[in-house]
Amino acid sequence: MTSTLLTCTSSTRPGSPNAGDTLFETDTNKIIVYSGSAWKVYDSDASTYALDGSNILSQSPIFHFDAGKINGTDATGNPSDGSAFSGVWTSKVNGIKTFAQSTASSQPTWNSSGTSSEAYIESDGGDELSIDFRSSLNIPNSGAFTLFGVAKRNGSGHLVIGGTSKANYNIFPAGSTQGVWMNYNGGNDYLMYNQTGSDTTPRPTFASGSGNGSTAVSTYDVTRLFMVVRDSSNNTRLFVDGNNTNSAGVATASTEVLVEVLLKNSGYRMTGQTYEVGYFNSDISTADKNTLISYVNSRYGTGRNADNTDDLARATF
Amino acid sequence: MKYRLYDTSSEWVNKNESLEEHLNIPSENTFRYAEVSQVTNSNNAEYGKYIMPVCTSGTWKCDDQFNPSELVDSDPTWEKGAPGE
What we know:
The complex is a heterodimer of chains A (317) and B (85).
Chain A: E1 6-8, E2 22-25, E3 30-34, E4 39-42, E5 49-50, E6 56-57, E7 63-66, E8 83-84, E9 109-111, E10 120-124, E11 129-130, E12 145-153, E13 158-163, E14 180-185, E15 190-192, E16 224-230, E17 236-240, E18 243-244, E19 261-263, E20 271-280, H1 286-300
Parallel strand pairs in A: 1-2
Antiparallel strand pairs in A: 2-3, 3-4, 5-6, 7-20, 8-9, 9-10, 10-20, 11-19, 12-16, 12-20, 13-14, 14-15, 16-17, 17-18
Chain B: E1 2-6, H1 9-22, E2 37-38, E3 50-54
Antiparallel strand pairs in B: 1-3, 2-3
């Protein structure tokens, strides 16, 4: 004898639930129970992680911040459109949070509708959001990791994913100059991960030609998926929209990773839109990379390259 | 975001207080307008100056409180350890 729960999605939960109401969310594959004051979310014992209803990773990230779910669960905690964000951004897993930014000029702006009508956090270069998870989750990580971000640069500034605060950027990792893991520098037209010192920093460039679009080299201000992946041998690679762009410039960065800030306002100042940021303490498998790419394709649309002739988020390597 | 550089700490503090009054800060969850910082790269021509961020849009827009000719863009070489040092 089997029974079937009523279903909903994380964005279509019942509006007036009663205590004890139990449903299955089809987009997250989680069971939710209303306690009388809030939804309690229950996940599988397995360490899989549902990005949405059809894209399931084989492992769960350490954190996954989603601008569409500021409270980490649903859209009910989202700020008003265009407002300065002075609240707390909660990861969808592990309960990791950003610290509230109480300095006006350092507060980013939350916007409800960007690429594919998805929400994003916007930084004007002077904003900073810090997170602190080192004590409980064995970070900084000195081994394999995967850091990903869905982000869009504004204008000619820097697009930065992960990094250290102004106070620490010369400390973690040792020898780094700006303490960022991914910087998208319009002035120099290069991608880099600045972890081995400025003299030896690899500067991979976009592959051009078949499959990557003739404009890929010079088109920067579109929403892209970035993945920085380091394996157990410290080979560190950058993947952009599914393409390994640095086959000729693999770094061997062995320093600790510390993703202390989601946005930074020193050195390489983030100027752009952040939709999602996630972090795994392993180098995720090719299958999981492809799943992540498929998820980004589904949520943010394909053909985001300026010439609209290529699917930059394609799931092939 | 634009920036205004001040020669002295007192100039920076006075302007910050003026901006907080103009923007009705402190308010809920917001305790100050800016935090003081300096140009720490001794190789930068502005070394030692005090950096005031100037919001040009959004909730805390206040660029109308400055002389436009005195506002500058950010410079990644303001900080010690910047590339190009």
